Protein backbone atom coordinates (compact mmCIF):
# COMPACT_ATOMS: atom_id res chain seq x y z
CA UNK A 1 0.00 0.00 0.00
CA UNK A 2 2.87 2.35 0.72
CA UNK A 3 4.25 3.95 -2.38
CA UNK A 4 7.70 5.47 -2.11
CA UNK A 5 8.94 7.27 -5.22
CA UNK A 6 12.67 6.90 -5.62
CA UNK A 7 13.56 10.50 -5.08
CA UNK A 8 12.03 13.33 -3.08
CA UNK A 9 11.05 16.24 -5.29
CA UNK A 10 12.98 19.46 -5.19
CA UNK A 11 10.84 22.50 -4.61
CA UNK A 12 10.85 24.68 -7.68
CA UNK A 13 13.41 27.48 -7.58
CA UNK A 14 14.44 26.37 -4.11
CA UNK A 15 10.78 26.86 -3.32
CA UNK A 16 10.11 29.16 -0.46
CA UNK A 17 8.34 27.53 2.43
CA UNK A 18 5.57 28.87 4.57
CA UNK A 19 6.75 29.08 8.16
CA UNK A 20 4.42 31.68 9.66
CA UNK A 21 0.68 31.40 9.34
CA UNK A 22 -2.32 31.50 11.59
CA UNK A 23 -2.61 34.90 13.23
CA UNK A 24 0.74 36.18 11.92
CA UNK A 25 1.40 37.75 8.50
CA UNK A 26 2.30 35.08 5.98
CA UNK A 27 6.04 34.94 5.47
CA UNK A 28 8.23 32.74 3.35
CA UNK A 29 11.52 31.06 4.04
CA UNK A 30 14.02 29.06 2.07
CA UNK A 31 13.50 25.34 1.69
CA UNK A 32 17.11 24.93 2.82
CA UNK A 33 16.22 26.30 6.26
CA UNK A 34 17.63 23.56 8.51
CA UNK A 35 16.20 20.58 6.59
CA UNK A 36 17.12 18.24 9.46
CA UNK A 37 14.71 20.17 11.65
CA UNK A 38 12.01 21.00 9.11
CA UNK A 39 11.75 17.73 7.19
CA UNK A 40 12.16 16.38 3.68
CA UNK A 41 11.23 17.79 0.30
CA UNK A 42 7.94 15.92 0.51
CA UNK A 43 7.21 17.59 3.85
CA UNK A 44 8.03 21.00 2.39
CA UNK A 45 5.69 20.40 -0.53
CA UNK A 46 2.86 19.13 1.67
CA UNK A 47 3.03 22.09 4.05
CA UNK A 48 3.29 24.53 1.15
CA UNK A 49 0.32 22.94 -0.61
CA UNK A 50 -1.78 23.15 2.56
CA UNK A 51 -0.64 26.71 3.26
CA UNK A 52 0.52 25.85 6.78
CA UNK A 53 3.51 26.94 8.79
CA UNK A 54 6.26 24.54 9.76
CA UNK A 55 6.39 25.61 13.40
CA UNK A 56 7.47 22.32 15.01
CA UNK A 57 10.63 20.27 14.78
CA UNK A 58 10.26 17.13 12.69
CA UNK A 59 12.11 14.88 15.11
CA UNK A 60 9.97 11.74 14.67
CA UNK A 61 11.70 9.16 12.48
CA UNK A 62 9.75 6.12 11.15
CA UNK A 63 10.41 3.97 14.23
CA UNK A 64 9.48 6.80 16.59
CA UNK A 65 6.22 7.35 14.70
CA UNK A 66 5.38 3.65 14.93
CA UNK A 67 6.33 3.62 18.62
CA UNK A 68 4.09 6.63 19.25
CA UNK A 69 1.13 4.91 17.57
CA UNK A 70 1.64 1.58 19.33
CA UNK A 71 2.31 2.90 22.83
CA UNK A 72 -0.52 5.46 22.72
CA UNK A 73 -3.09 2.93 21.49
CA UNK A 74 -2.07 0.40 24.17
CA UNK A 75 -4.89 -1.78 22.87
CA UNK A 76 -4.13 -4.91 24.86
CA UNK A 77 -3.61 -2.91 28.06
CA UNK A 78 -6.89 -1.01 27.79
CA UNK A 79 -8.87 -4.10 26.80
CA UNK A 80 -7.44 -5.85 29.84
CA UNK A 81 -8.39 -3.09 32.28
CA UNK A 82 -11.69 -1.88 30.78
CA UNK A 83 -13.70 -4.92 29.75
CA UNK A 84 -16.57 -4.82 32.25
CA UNK A 85 -19.27 -3.97 29.68
CA UNK A 86 -18.08 -6.72 27.37
CA UNK A 87 -18.15 -9.35 30.12
CA UNK A 88 -21.56 -8.23 31.40
CA UNK A 89 -23.05 -8.28 27.92
CA UNK A 90 -21.79 -11.44 26.28
CA UNK A 91 -19.53 -13.21 28.76
CA UNK A 92 -16.23 -14.77 27.74
CA UNK A 93 -17.29 -15.74 24.22
CA UNK A 94 -19.01 -12.40 23.74
CA UNK A 95 -15.90 -10.44 24.74
CA UNK A 96 -13.81 -12.48 22.31
CA UNK A 97 -16.05 -12.40 19.25
CA UNK A 98 -17.08 -8.76 19.60
CA UNK A 99 -13.39 -7.90 19.56
CA UNK A 100 -12.82 -10.02 16.44
CA UNK A 101 -15.42 -8.11 14.41
CA UNK A 102 -14.32 -4.80 15.94
CA UNK A 103 -10.74 -5.53 14.88
CA UNK A 104 -11.92 -6.02 11.30
CA UNK A 105 -14.44 -3.15 11.26
CA UNK A 106 -12.11 -0.65 12.87
CA UNK A 107 -9.38 -1.84 10.54
CA UNK A 108 -11.47 -0.54 7.62
CA UNK A 109 -11.68 2.84 9.38
CA UNK A 110 -7.96 2.87 10.08
CA UNK A 111 -6.84 2.22 6.51
CA UNK A 112 -9.32 4.87 5.28
CA UNK A 113 -7.89 7.43 7.71
CA UNK A 114 -4.34 6.37 6.82
CA UNK A 115 -4.93 7.14 3.16
CA UNK A 116 -6.30 10.59 4.05
CA UNK A 117 -3.29 11.19 6.31
CA UNK A 118 -1.06 10.47 3.32
CA UNK A 119 -2.92 12.98 1.16
CA UNK A 120 -2.98 15.73 3.80
CA UNK A 121 -0.50 15.07 6.64
CA UNK A 122 -1.54 17.77 9.10
CA UNK A 123 -2.11 18.02 12.84
CA UNK A 124 -5.72 18.96 12.14
CA UNK A 125 -6.67 15.47 11.03
CA UNK A 126 -10.37 14.89 10.44
CA UNK A 127 -11.64 18.48 10.39
CA UNK A 128 -8.95 19.43 7.86
CA UNK A 129 -9.76 16.43 5.66
CA UNK A 130 -13.45 17.31 5.78
CA UNK A 131 -12.67 20.88 4.71
CA UNK A 132 -10.42 19.75 1.86
CA UNK A 133 -12.54 16.90 0.52
CA UNK A 134 -16.12 18.10 1.12
CA UNK A 135 -18.25 20.06 -1.31
CA UNK A 136 -17.32 23.75 -1.36
CA UNK A 137 -20.89 24.56 -0.39
CA UNK A 138 -20.79 22.59 2.86
CA UNK A 139 -17.10 22.39 3.74
CA UNK A 140 -17.02 25.27 6.22
CA UNK A 141 -19.98 24.08 8.28
CA UNK A 142 -19.03 20.39 8.25
CA UNK A 143 -15.39 21.14 9.01
CA UNK A 144 -16.30 23.44 11.91
CA UNK A 145 -18.67 20.90 13.48
CA UNK A 146 -16.14 18.10 12.99
CA UNK A 147 -13.41 20.22 14.56
CA UNK A 148 -15.50 20.85 17.66
CA UNK A 149 -16.47 17.19 17.98
CA UNK A 150 -12.85 16.17 17.57
CA UNK A 151 -11.58 18.62 20.20
CA UNK A 152 -14.21 17.54 22.72
CA UNK A 153 -13.66 13.84 22.01
CA UNK A 154 -9.91 14.07 22.50
CA UNK A 155 -10.24 16.19 25.64
CA UNK A 156 -12.77 13.73 27.12
CA UNK A 157 -10.48 10.84 26.18
CA UNK A 158 -7.51 12.49 27.89
CA UNK A 159 -9.52 12.85 31.10
CA UNK A 160 -10.77 9.25 30.95
CA UNK A 161 -7.26 7.83 30.54
CA UNK A 162 -5.91 9.73 33.55
CA UNK A 163 -8.93 8.75 35.62
CA UNK A 164 -8.60 5.08 34.67
CA UNK A 165 -4.96 5.17 35.79
CA UNK A 166 -6.02 6.61 39.14
CA UNK A 167 -8.65 3.94 39.70
CA UNK A 168 -6.12 1.18 38.93
CA UNK A 169 -3.89 2.60 41.66
CA UNK A 170 -6.88 2.53 43.99
CA UNK A 171 -7.40 -1.10 43.02
CA UNK A 172 -3.79 -1.88 43.93
CA UNK A 173 -4.30 -0.26 47.32
CA UNK A 174 -7.41 -2.39 47.84
CA UNK A 175 -5.41 -5.54 47.13
CA UNK A 176 -2.76 -4.48 49.62
CA UNK A 177 -5.27 -3.29 52.21
CA UNK A 178 -8.71 -4.96 51.98
CA UNK A 179 -10.07 -2.47 54.53
CA UNK A 180 -9.38 0.46 52.19
CA UNK A 181 -12.56 2.14 51.01
CA UNK A 182 -11.94 3.95 47.70
CA UNK A 183 -13.32 7.49 47.69
CA UNK A 184 -14.10 9.50 44.58
CA UNK A 185 -11.95 12.40 45.73
CA UNK A 186 -9.01 10.01 46.07
CA UNK A 187 -9.38 9.20 42.39
CA UNK A 188 -9.41 12.90 41.54
CA UNK A 189 -6.16 13.44 43.46
CA UNK A 190 -4.56 10.61 41.47
CA UNK A 191 -5.72 12.35 38.29
CA UNK A 192 -3.98 15.55 39.41
CA UNK A 193 -0.77 13.60 39.99
CA UNK A 194 -1.07 12.03 36.54
CA UNK A 195 -1.62 15.46 34.99
CA UNK A 196 1.58 16.78 36.58
CA UNK A 197 3.53 13.87 35.09
CA UNK A 198 1.90 14.43 31.69
CA UNK A 199 2.78 18.13 31.62
CA UNK A 200 6.39 17.49 32.64
CA UNK A 201 7.04 14.91 29.92
CA UNK A 202 5.20 16.78 27.16
CA UNK A 203 6.90 20.11 27.83
CA UNK A 204 10.24 19.58 29.56
CA UNK A 205 11.12 16.11 28.25
CA UNK A 206 9.56 16.50 24.79
CA UNK A 207 12.92 16.44 23.02
CA UNK A 208 13.66 13.04 24.48
CA UNK A 209 10.24 11.52 23.84
CA UNK A 210 11.00 10.00 20.39
CA UNK A 211 13.86 8.01 21.95
CA UNK A 212 11.85 7.18 25.07
CA UNK A 213 8.99 5.95 22.88
CA UNK A 214 11.26 3.43 21.18
CA UNK A 215 12.14 1.98 24.59
CA UNK A 216 8.47 2.04 25.55
CA UNK A 217 7.56 0.05 22.43
CA UNK A 218 9.89 -2.71 23.61
CA UNK A 219 8.38 -2.44 27.11
CA UNK A 220 4.86 -2.56 25.65
CA UNK A 221 5.67 -5.90 23.99
CA UNK A 222 7.71 -7.25 26.92
CA UNK A 223 4.88 -6.55 29.40
CA UNK A 224 2.48 -8.38 27.08
CA UNK A 225 4.80 -11.41 27.03
CA UNK A 226 5.04 -11.42 30.84
CA UNK A 227 1.25 -11.28 31.32
CA UNK A 228 0.62 -13.98 28.71
CA UNK A 229 3.25 -16.34 30.13
CA UNK A 230 2.13 -15.87 33.74
CA UNK A 231 -1.54 -16.49 32.98
CA UNK A 232 -0.94 -19.57 30.82
CA UNK A 233 1.56 -21.02 33.31
CA UNK A 234 -0.13 -20.27 36.63
CA UNK A 235 -3.84 -19.45 36.23
CA UNK A 236 -6.65 -22.03 36.31
CA UNK A 237 -7.93 -23.07 32.89
CA UNK A 238 -11.42 -22.77 31.39
CA UNK A 239 -12.48 -25.35 28.76
CA UNK A 240 -12.32 -24.14 25.16
CA UNK A 241 -16.10 -24.49 24.83
CA UNK A 242 -16.66 -21.85 27.53
CA UNK A 243 -14.24 -19.44 25.85
CA UNK A 244 -15.46 -19.74 22.27
CA UNK A 245 -19.12 -20.74 22.39
CA UNK A 246 -20.73 -19.91 25.74
CA UNK A 247 -22.37 -16.48 25.78
CA UNK A 248 -24.02 -14.94 28.82
CA UNK A 249 -26.10 -11.87 29.66
CA UNK A 250 -25.47 -10.57 33.16
CA UNK A 251 -26.69 -6.99 32.74
CA UNK A 252 -30.41 -7.61 32.42
CA UNK A 253 -30.77 -7.94 28.64
CA UNK A 254 -32.87 -10.97 27.64
CA UNK A 255 -31.66 -11.13 24.04
CA UNK A 256 -28.07 -12.33 23.60
CA UNK A 257 -27.77 -10.59 20.23
CA UNK A 258 -28.70 -7.21 21.70
CA UNK A 259 -26.35 -7.82 24.62
CA UNK A 260 -23.47 -8.48 22.22
CA UNK A 261 -24.18 -5.28 20.31
CA UNK A 262 -24.03 -3.33 23.56
CA UNK A 263 -21.05 -5.23 24.93
CA UNK A 264 -18.91 -4.40 21.89
CA UNK A 265 -18.30 -0.98 23.47
CA UNK A 266 -15.36 -2.53 25.38
CA UNK A 267 -13.70 -3.56 22.13
CA UNK A 268 -14.47 -0.19 20.54
CA UNK A 269 -13.02 1.73 23.49
CA UNK A 270 -9.81 -0.27 23.24
CA UNK A 271 -9.55 0.49 19.52
CA UNK A 272 -10.29 4.22 19.67
CA UNK A 273 -7.74 6.96 19.00
CA UNK A 274 -5.78 4.82 16.57
CA UNK A 275 -5.57 7.94 14.39
CA UNK A 276 -3.50 9.76 17.03
CA UNK A 277 -0.31 9.77 14.96
CA UNK A 278 -2.10 11.81 12.29
CA UNK A 279 -2.25 14.70 14.75
CA UNK A 280 1.55 14.51 15.14
CA UNK A 281 2.08 14.73 11.36
CA UNK A 282 3.83 18.08 11.49
CA UNK A 283 6.54 16.55 13.72
CA UNK A 284 7.15 13.41 11.63
CA UNK A 285 9.80 13.34 8.91
CA UNK A 286 8.39 12.34 5.52
CA UNK A 287 4.94 12.41 7.10
CA UNK A 288 3.03 11.62 3.90
CA UNK A 289 4.54 8.14 3.93
CA UNK A 290 5.54 7.43 7.53
CA UNK A 291 2.37 8.61 9.28
CA UNK A 292 -0.05 6.27 7.44
CA UNK A 293 2.38 3.39 7.85
CA UNK A 294 2.60 4.08 11.60
CA UNK A 295 -1.18 4.34 11.94
CA UNK A 296 -1.89 1.10 10.07
CA UNK A 297 0.97 -0.98 11.44
CA UNK A 298 0.40 0.35 14.95
CA UNK A 299 -3.27 -0.61 14.84
CA UNK A 300 -2.94 -4.10 13.38
CA UNK A 301 0.11 -5.10 15.46
CA UNK A 302 -1.69 -3.93 18.60
CA UNK A 303 -4.79 -5.76 17.43
CA UNK A 304 -2.97 -9.10 17.19
CA UNK A 305 -1.49 -8.66 20.68
CA UNK A 306 -4.93 -7.73 22.02
CA UNK A 307 -6.60 -10.76 20.43
CA UNK A 308 -4.09 -13.14 22.02
CA UNK A 309 -4.53 -11.32 25.35
CA UNK A 310 -8.33 -11.65 25.28
CA UNK A 311 -8.14 -15.38 24.52
CA UNK A 312 -5.62 -15.82 27.35
CA UNK A 313 -7.74 -13.80 29.79
CA UNK A 314 -10.86 -15.79 28.89
CA UNK A 315 -9.14 -19.13 29.50
CA UNK A 316 -7.79 -17.84 32.85
CA UNK A 317 -11.11 -16.50 34.24
CA UNK A 318 -12.86 -19.17 36.35
CA UNK A 319 -16.05 -17.16 36.90
CA UNK A 320 -17.29 -14.11 35.00
CA UNK A 321 -19.69 -13.16 37.79
CA UNK A 322 -16.99 -13.35 40.47
CA UNK A 323 -14.67 -11.30 38.28
CA UNK A 324 -17.32 -8.60 37.89
CA UNK A 325 -17.97 -8.63 41.65
CA UNK A 326 -14.30 -8.22 42.60
CA UNK A 327 -13.98 -5.44 45.22
CA UNK A 328 -11.29 -3.66 43.18
CA UNK A 329 -13.79 -3.12 40.35
CA UNK A 330 -11.38 -4.66 37.82
CA UNK A 331 -12.04 -8.19 36.51
CA UNK A 332 -8.40 -8.56 35.45
CA UNK A 333 -7.21 -8.14 39.05
CA UNK A 334 -9.56 -10.98 40.03
CA UNK A 335 -7.87 -13.14 37.38
CA UNK A 336 -4.43 -12.20 38.69
CA UNK A 337 -5.54 -13.19 42.20
CA UNK A 338 -6.39 -16.69 40.97
CA UNK A 339 -2.86 -17.13 39.63
CA UNK A 340 -0.61 -15.21 42.01
CA UNK A 341 -0.11 -14.26 45.66
CA UNK A 342 -0.68 -10.66 46.76
CA UNK A 343 2.86 -9.51 45.92
CA UNK A 344 2.59 -11.07 42.47
CA UNK A 345 -0.77 -9.37 41.82
CA UNK A 346 0.69 -6.00 42.73
CA UNK A 347 3.79 -6.59 40.64
CA UNK A 348 1.92 -7.75 37.55
CA UNK A 349 -0.56 -4.86 37.81
CA UNK A 350 2.30 -2.38 38.20
CA UNK A 351 3.86 -3.80 35.02
CA UNK A 352 0.65 -2.97 33.16
CA UNK A 353 0.42 0.46 34.77
CA UNK A 354 3.73 1.66 33.29
CA UNK A 355 2.70 1.54 29.59
CA UNK A 356 -0.76 2.87 30.53
CA UNK A 357 0.82 5.93 32.17
CA UNK A 358 2.93 6.65 29.09
CA UNK A 359 -0.08 6.07 26.86
CA UNK A 360 -1.77 8.91 28.77
CA UNK A 361 1.27 11.13 28.22
CA UNK A 362 1.24 10.54 24.47
CA UNK A 363 -2.55 10.88 24.34
CA UNK A 364 -2.27 14.36 25.83
CA UNK A 365 0.43 15.23 23.27
CA UNK A 366 -1.87 14.26 20.40
CA UNK A 367 -4.84 16.01 22.05
CA UNK A 368 -2.85 19.22 22.36
CA UNK A 369 -1.77 19.14 18.68
CA UNK A 370 -5.34 18.61 17.49
CA UNK A 371 -6.55 21.47 19.70
CA UNK A 372 -3.67 23.68 18.51
CA UNK A 373 -4.48 22.99 14.86
CA UNK A 374 -8.18 23.85 15.19
CA UNK A 375 -7.26 27.04 17.03
CA UNK A 376 -4.76 27.88 14.27
CA UNK A 377 -7.69 27.86 11.85
CA UNK A 378 -9.65 30.12 14.25
CA UNK A 379 -12.13 27.44 15.25
CA UNK A 380 -11.97 27.95 19.03
CA UNK A 381 -12.47 30.81 21.50
CA UNK A 382 -9.14 32.44 22.43
CA UNK A 383 -7.63 30.81 19.35
CA UNK A 384 -4.70 33.20 19.15
CA UNK A 385 -3.47 32.24 22.62
CA UNK A 386 -4.16 28.52 22.21
CA UNK A 387 -2.26 28.20 18.91
CA UNK A 388 0.79 30.14 20.10
CA UNK A 389 3.94 28.04 19.74
CA UNK A 390 6.77 28.43 22.23
CA UNK A 391 9.62 29.69 20.05
CA UNK A 392 12.39 28.19 22.17
CA UNK A 393 10.87 24.75 22.61
CA UNK A 394 8.94 24.74 19.31
CA UNK A 395 6.00 23.19 21.14
CA UNK A 396 2.32 24.18 21.56
CA UNK A 397 2.88 24.74 25.28
CA UNK A 398 -0.37 26.68 25.72
CA UNK A 399 -2.42 23.90 24.12
CA UNK A 400 -0.64 21.29 26.25
CA UNK A 401 -1.37 23.27 29.42
CA UNK A 402 -4.99 23.84 28.39
CA UNK A 403 -5.51 20.11 27.83
CA UNK A 404 -4.10 19.37 31.29
CA UNK A 405 -6.36 21.99 32.89
CA UNK A 406 -9.44 20.58 31.15
CA UNK A 407 -8.60 17.06 32.40
CA UNK A 408 -8.26 18.42 35.92
CA UNK A 409 -11.54 20.32 35.77
CA UNK A 410 -13.40 17.29 34.40
CA UNK A 411 -12.00 15.11 37.18
CA UNK A 412 -13.45 17.51 39.77
CA UNK A 413 -16.92 16.61 38.50
CA UNK A 414 -16.31 13.05 39.70
CA UNK A 415 -16.24 14.26 43.32
CA UNK A 416 -19.81 15.48 43.07
CA UNK A 417 -21.27 12.92 40.69
CA UNK A 418 -19.64 9.81 39.28
CA UNK A 419 -22.56 9.46 36.86
CA UNK A 420 -21.99 12.95 35.43
CA UNK A 421 -18.26 12.34 35.04
CA UNK A 422 -18.78 8.98 33.30
CA UNK A 423 -21.32 10.62 31.00
CA UNK A 424 -18.80 13.24 29.93
CA UNK A 425 -15.97 10.82 29.23
CA UNK A 426 -18.37 8.50 27.36
CA UNK A 427 -18.68 11.32 24.83
CA UNK A 428 -15.24 10.21 23.61
CA UNK A 429 -16.66 7.25 21.68
CA UNK A 430 -19.64 8.92 19.99
CA UNK A 431 -17.86 12.16 19.09
CA UNK A 432 -14.85 10.40 17.54
CA UNK A 433 -17.15 8.10 15.58
CA UNK A 434 -18.86 11.21 14.22
CA UNK A 435 -15.55 12.61 12.99
CA UNK A 436 -14.69 9.30 11.32
CA UNK A 437 -18.07 9.14 9.59
CA UNK A 438 -17.95 12.68 8.22
CA UNK A 439 -14.34 12.55 7.01
CA UNK A 440 -14.80 9.17 5.29
CA UNK A 441 -18.05 10.38 3.69
CA UNK A 442 -16.32 13.47 2.31
CA UNK A 443 -13.37 11.62 0.79
CA UNK A 444 -15.83 9.15 -0.79
CA UNK A 445 -17.75 12.06 -2.33
CA UNK A 446 -14.58 13.51 -3.82
CA UNK A 447 -13.38 10.14 -5.11
CA UNK A 448 -16.69 9.62 -6.90
CA UNK A 449 -17.29 13.09 -8.35
CA UNK A 450 -13.90 14.87 -8.53
CA UNK A 451 -11.13 12.25 -8.29
CA UNK A 452 -8.78 14.41 -10.34
CA UNK A 453 -8.68 17.01 -7.53
CA UNK A 454 -7.40 14.58 -4.89
CA UNK A 455 -3.82 15.22 -3.74
CA UNK A 456 -1.09 12.72 -4.56
CA UNK A 457 -1.04 9.93 -1.99
CA UNK A 458 2.01 7.81 -1.30
CA UNK A 459 0.03 5.32 0.81
CA UNK A 460 -2.94 4.31 -1.29
CA UNK A 461 -5.85 1.87 -1.06
CA UNK A 462 -5.75 1.57 -4.83
CA UNK A 463 -8.71 0.90 -7.08
CA UNK A 464 -10.67 -0.80 -4.31
CA UNK A 465 -10.30 2.16 -1.97
CA UNK A 466 -13.81 3.47 -2.54
CA UNK A 467 -15.31 0.10 -1.55
CA UNK A 468 -13.16 -0.06 1.57
CA UNK A 469 -14.34 3.46 2.43
CA UNK A 470 -17.97 2.39 1.96
CA UNK A 471 -17.59 -0.61 4.28
CA UNK A 472 -15.78 1.57 6.81
CA UNK A 473 -18.63 4.10 6.77
CA UNK A 474 -21.23 1.36 7.29
CA UNK A 475 -19.27 0.03 10.26
CA UNK A 476 -18.89 3.52 11.78
CA UNK A 477 -22.64 4.13 11.61
CA UNK A 478 -23.31 0.68 13.06
CA UNK A 479 -20.93 1.25 15.99
CA UNK A 480 -22.17 4.81 16.56
CA UNK A 481 -25.78 3.61 16.83
CA UNK A 482 -25.02 0.97 19.46
CA UNK A 483 -22.70 3.26 21.44
CA UNK A 484 -25.78 5.18 22.61
CA UNK A 485 -27.53 2.20 24.20
CA UNK A 486 -27.60 1.73 28.00
CA UNK A 487 -25.37 -1.11 29.19
CA UNK A 488 -27.78 -2.40 31.86
CA UNK A 489 -31.44 -3.10 32.48
CA UNK A 490 -33.59 -1.92 34.12
CA UNK A 491 -32.44 1.53 33.09
CA UNK A 492 -32.04 4.06 35.92
CA UNK A 493 -30.60 7.56 36.17
CA UNK A 494 -27.31 6.06 37.34
CA UNK A 495 -26.84 3.52 34.55
CA UNK A 496 -28.52 5.45 31.72
CA UNK A 497 -26.17 6.07 28.80
CA UNK A 498 -26.00 9.85 28.91
CA UNK A 499 -23.66 10.04 25.94
CA UNK A 500 -26.62 10.42 23.56
CA UNK A 501 -27.84 13.45 25.53
CA UNK A 502 -24.37 14.97 25.69
CA UNK A 503 -23.72 14.26 22.02
CA UNK A 504 -26.89 16.11 21.01
CA UNK A 505 -26.13 18.87 23.51
CA UNK A 506 -22.59 19.34 22.22
CA UNK A 507 -23.86 19.33 18.65
CA UNK A 508 -26.38 22.08 19.48
CA UNK A 509 -23.75 24.14 21.33
CA UNK A 510 -21.32 23.74 18.41
CA UNK A 511 -24.08 24.79 16.03
CA UNK A 512 -24.72 27.86 18.18
CA UNK A 513 -21.00 28.70 18.18
CA UNK A 514 -20.99 28.41 14.41
CA UNK A 515 -23.95 30.76 14.02
CA UNK A 516 -22.60 33.33 16.48
CA UNK A 517 -18.91 33.21 15.65
CA UNK A 518 -17.84 30.42 13.34
CA UNK A 519 -19.49 31.52 10.11
CA UNK A 520 -17.86 34.96 10.47
CA UNK A 521 -14.34 34.01 11.56
CA UNK A 522 -13.87 30.41 10.48
CA UNK A 523 -13.10 29.86 6.81
CA UNK A 524 -11.88 26.29 6.93
CA UNK A 525 -8.32 25.18 6.15
CA UNK A 526 -9.23 24.53 2.50
CA UNK A 527 -8.98 28.26 1.78
CA UNK A 528 -5.20 27.96 2.19
CA UNK A 529 -4.88 24.81 0.09
CA UNK A 530 -3.32 25.02 -3.36
CA UNK A 531 -5.00 22.74 -5.90
CA UNK A 532 -3.41 21.49 -9.10
CA UNK A 533 -6.80 21.25 -10.84
Automatic annotation (TrEMBL):
Superkingdom as given in the UniProt entry: Eukaryota
Name of this chain's protein: GABA-specific high-affinity permease
Signal sequence coordinates: none
Keyword Transport: yes
Pfam families: AA_permease_2
Lineage: Eukaryota, Fungi, Dikarya, Ascomycota, Pezizomycotina
Predominant subcellular localization, coarse grouping: membrane
InterPro entries attached to this UniProt entry: AA/rel_permease1
Molecular function in Gene Ontology: transmembrane transporter activity
Keyword set, alphabetical order: Membrane, Transmembrane, Transmembrane helix, Transport
Lipid bilayer topology: Multi-pass membrane protein
GO cellular component: membrane
Cross-referenced PANTHER family: AMINO-ACID PERMEASE BAT1 (PTHR45649), TRANSPORTER, PUTATIVE (EUROFUNG)-RELATED (PTHR45649:SF4)
Entry's localization field: Membrane
Transmembrane segments: 59-76, 96-113, 147-173, 185-204, 216-235, 255-272, 293-317, 343-363, 395-415, 421-445, 466-484, 496-516
